[in-house]
Amino acid sequence: MIFAPLFGKLIDHIGARTTLLISLWGYFILGAGGAFLYGPWQIAIDRIILGGFAAGLMAAGTAVISQWYQGFARLNMIAKQGMAIELGGVVFLFIGGLLSELSWQAPFLLYVMGLLCAILTVFFVPRRKASDIPEENSVTVSSNASSMGSIMLFTVLAMGLFFSFIISLPGFLASLDYSEAQTGYVLSFISLVAVFSAMTMPKVVARFSVKYTLGIAFLTYAIGHVLFAFSSVTMSIILASVFAGIGFGLSIPLLNHSTVEMSNSRNLGRNLSLFAMAVFTGQFVTSVLEFIPLNHGKIFLVCAGLAVLCSIAVVNRKTSA
């Protein structure tokens, strides 16, 4: 949230590929370097700056995709990006758990992936100048601001509704006598469903349009929350997890693509940084759920009501964004 605008300016001034490399190096150094830090202040400062490079990775990665893919091919590639993000969550959280059994410092080795990806970027992602990029979009300043405002709002809400599962499920499942490991399996299953949902998202868009696909995403969030609110057996929890994963896979990659679609070479970095801010804001605001004096079932129902309102608002909008 704090550093995303800085990386947006870097993308627009020095290019997406160069910003991506800077972000990967910073992610590697600060991420792996956390293993050598002690005390809450050192760790907190390291994590805050690391978050900035994470935002840079998110925005610059999408900017690179937008330079090399156009139209429906770009939608497909951004869907694959969403799949990779969620699959990475499944795989590396699992590996991190295994490494943590060896040593508290061992999970920091996962950040070596930043170095590996930087090397791969150097050798396999060629340079491309802004002048070489076809200018598909010609949006006005006013329509740009209006569209980005809508995209940011729906992104905050979509991420908030998704992370409400992440925040609420551990306590909710513990009340049903689920172990920590079983809770981890449920959360990983949601991410796995999101992978397959993102895979099918371009086909859903081709069938129903961007607007209705996003409306469906919020509706599946609502169904997932309602099912969790009344779940007490494993099968209903599995079904609720399916709807939760579908909501993420249909919403965040699509909003990411919508950001690119209404941008041009002059404001792409800025708009993608705003999208990154919205994503992390959605994650951040869900922390308030821990302080709401309601039981988990009622919190799920409140979130379900919010998701229904979002679905109605999206479908009734005049524009596809």
Count of helix runs:
10
Query: Which H/E pattern describes the elements?
Result: HHHHHHHHHH
Strand tally: 0
| CATH class membership | Mainly Alpha
- Detail the poorly predicted runs: 138-142
Oligomer: single chain
What name does the CATH topology carry? Growth Hormone, Chain: A
Largest sheet: none
Distance between the termini: 22 Å
Number of domains: 1
**Average pLDDT for all residues:** 86
CATH architecture: Up-down Bundle
Percent helix, as a range, is over 70%
Give the full name of the CATH homologous superfamily. Answer: MFS general substrate transporter like domains
Provide an overview of this structure.
The chain is mostly helical and about 325 residues long. The protein has a single domain, classed as Growth Hormone, Chain: A (Up-down Bundle). Helices cover about 80% and strands about 0% of the residues. It has ten helices and no strands. The chain is globular, with a radius of gyration of 20 Å. It starts with a helix and ends in a 5-residue tail after the last helix. About 40% of the residues are buried. About 0% of the residues have low confidence.
